[in-house]
């Protein structure tokens, strides 16, 4: 920024100054990149006149260009002390303070400069830059808007500034306002505002790679993944050949666009393709922090947890303040049951967000409040953990009554839900309702009916019923629970729509669900895009196979996408929210006192006969049951089991689902079968 102020800075000197012509010559040399020729001229003038303001000023800027910020500060401060009301000197001194990391002092100096010279675009541009560094986003956005007004440009028009000399400044200011609207919601701006302003900016400057990246981010935020992908691809094509950009800028824009494009594949559930994209960026720049973080997150989704930890730790070595890497690593350790380690990482991230952008800390408050240890030592530890969970939920609810915390994208910002809550086998309704109240305050945009929810009456047509889950893949439990229902619902009354959420590395729905559905609508990993998809589906009934197994189903369930919404017993506890009308369970799955009283449910409970499952009859593999003892012995040998005539005991269940009280049962079984 400072380089644009160099030409003829000595113009304010007295006309009789004998050094003026030489200083102008040196300033021109410096602007032409011939710093080594300019510096001796400044030094010579200062030998003759040690307190020459313009020579001190220009010499300080030369020192800054050479990377000596300490010397630059000393020289420009001396110059400014000799001309305390010179806006150019104040502006460049503010830039010097910005370069040494003291943005607050830089802001104070540049505010003074703008007050003295409110029409000076160079001074205002310097103020905008230092406001960003100081994280004063509202003032940053306001100053950028004022600059656009000053040069006669409207955000809601593709018309360029009349003076071509302003086009560079205009492009940056258009980007800054639209970007800060999307990132920081400055002055109440929304994703729609950001999207619209980038649209006009692209019409004005279709050759600008930075604007294409920003426009891609704005489309991405609205869930328009196809549009975002096209814009990222356009950005790195333009950046690679844009000769108006410096080489390092071209390189940075190309890499950023490629990282963002790979993120689209990740959100579509194409994790392996996303991993290839991130690794391609890292081959070009091995320490690209965002690529490292995103690669770590993608590796988690395909089950490569050890690799993910190594990549995320490397990211934090490269950039210790990379907040997303901190939260991704914390999510991994929380899922492994190391809540203390996860909490340390989350709290580091919260402190960084509170310093930089407090609005983005909301999701981490939710993560900390709703974390549950998956496996506990004994019953006492289980009950203690539940009491601690209740305490943290109550604390967050108390905080939300006194402070506004807003989450934009809960699937990304919260990421993990309190899946382990029901396994102690207690009344979960009070806690579920408290958690739901917290989220309804933090994510108000999700609550209630979606726009346009008014399907025509079903009396004159078949009802459209949708079944939604991320666990519909081959051999996934919730798909197995509902396959028979999907297959055998009477088609004279229903159009059956299966809505599987992308499951990276495999088909999102089993072959039977695919072949049985009248319509298959696959959902990705981007919540905004999924909301748009569900609105377009125009369902009469939406059945959530589960609502506490993963974040997409959980958070989609806060909205009403159909007049009737149902939760199946994939997670056997109440949802605790008004957007779900019915909970479907089975008479053999529930104690009569629990369901008849209804106190443990926020929904109306519907009990199916038996277990409420329409199982596929399994095919028996050839050779089973074993025709004789010899065949059984041979099978044991093939499986590598010890030889002998003994019973085999198997408990094929996830460890976190085994209640501590079940330990007593296991012990009694083992004591009764000592030869097992």
Would you kindly provide a brief summary of this structure?
With 676 residues, the chain is mainly alpha-helical. The protein has helices spanning 20-31, 35-48, 53-65, 69-82, 87-99, 103-116, 121-133, 137-150, 167-184, 191-204, 209-221, 225-241, 247-267, 271-284, 289-301, 305-318, 323-335, 339-356, 362-369, 379-400, 410-413, 429-442, 477-488, 511-516, 527-537, 551-556, 592-597, 629-638, 662-672, and strands at residues 448-449, 463-469, 494-500, 519-520, 541-544, 559-560, 564-568, 582-586, 604-608.
The radius of gyration is 32 Å
Give the helix/strand class: mainly alpha
Note poorly predicted spans: 1-15
What is the CA–CA distance across the termini? Answer: 78 Å
What share of residues are in beta strands?
5-15%
Determine the fraction of residues in helical runs and give it as a percent range: 55-70%
Main sheet summary: 7 strands, parallel
Overall pLDDT metric? 86
Could you give the count of β-strands? 9
Order of strands in the sheet with most strands: 4-3-2-5-7-8-9
Shape category: elongated
What's the helix count?
29
Describe this structure in words.
By secondary structure, the chain is mainly α. It contains 29 helices and nine strands. It has a seven-stranded parallel beta sheet with strand order 4-3-2-5-7-8-9. Helix 7 runs antiparallel to helix 8, helix 9 packs antiparallel against helix 10 and helix 19 runs antiparallel to helix 20. The longest helix is centred in the middle third of the chain and has 22 residues. The relative contact order is 0.05.
